[in-house]
């Protein structure tokens, strides 16, 4: 059978990976991915053929995986976190229509929203949304519309891609939109950098302080809802049992 | 050390669990949880003391875990999916303030949004939000406000708790709100039942059809954004590479 597994390997090394992800890596003959992720999983996949493309060539990576599977080689395409959340599952499935003989199976993983939340406490204890602040693929107007809607809905926010090589002021702009839309300056927020990897760091702070914070592209940011509290060094959004 | 692990065991049995979750179960002397989840993990934790409370007694379960840890016994509190998303991490951390000698570590897992999305394809390929339709802990007005905000922000929606023992019309009501707020009746949607367990089933359908659908409490529901497409039996929300 011609098969591609699209695998979310979780936030860091082996310990964040599911047993299903491990099993799919075992089964694959060839493993494709961005170099950094291949380095993470290489110790778990001795003897496998590894194929990488540069970071920005996601479509090339998908096409490569589909080509290899089309040749009859069971193939894995790995991405960090979850395969479906800002991951490779969506572009791969879009291209897969051109490879009718190839079966695609998506293996989910722990995305940065969940792994980062666990580091900070339980900020995602109630309804939340994720917004990517990268305007490479999405116009800033759409991002801004979503930030405003998240405030209108009193959602907890998890922000992906709060900075890039190109832009350092993205988070500052986003916080400005949230404040203007009415989220309180004292709202408990937090960020986690290098989740599940060496040098993991995190910080709790208010939304006003977050606006002045310097973060990089390896950081995931959390903005509380009206019910979120900072308590004992943890960010907690109650499910409501106590009310 | 007095320690409680709050562990998300993922969507089903062992294969959806991370290595870190397995390791924490190994380390624990006592494992607390709702009976159904204890049954799922019992084969992985031979010889451990298992403690359960009925489904609705979440706070009792948290207090039990903290008491046991306070007595110096390393304790695990397990929940399905992720510990932080509508899970036990938030109520446990709220109670933990009263147990200053107990250290709490949250071990994240694959929540139903990610696991269900992988079954359907890649519906969460761009910004999304999760909304629980359970009005046990949240007034329906708040749920409705969030559904409307999700439409205003053109978010993909993942709906948890679309039905309960008590209420069967929750999903119908929610779809009515989404349609009234302007989400198109033809919007591609899907649901997955018993994710990662025996008897897993799923279906793709339009929002108009979803409004008429009978689902139960073991189902997770996905409502596409304006960019979501149904293609080759899969639900795909593009990241935007092709535009």
Automatic annotation (TrEMBL), chains A, B:
Its EC number is 2.1.1.131. CDD domains: Precorrin_3B_C17_MT. Keywords: Cobalamin biosynthesis, Methyltransferase, S-adenosyl-L-methionine, Transferase. Pathway: Cofactor biosynthesis; adenosylcobalamin biosynthesis. Residues 3-210 form the Tetrapyrrole methylase domain. One of its GO terms (molecular function) is precorrin-3B C17-methyltransferase activity. The keyword S-adenosyl-L-methionine applies. It holds the Pfam family TP_methylase. The keyword S-adenosyl-L-methionine applies. InterPro entries: 4pyrrol_Mease, 4pyrrol_Methylase_sf, 4pyrrole_Mease_sub1, 4pyrrole_Mease_sub2, Cbl_synth_CobJ/CibH_dom, Precorrin_MeTrfase. This is Precorrin-3B C(17)-methyltransferase. It comes from Candidatus Faecalibacterium gallistercoris.
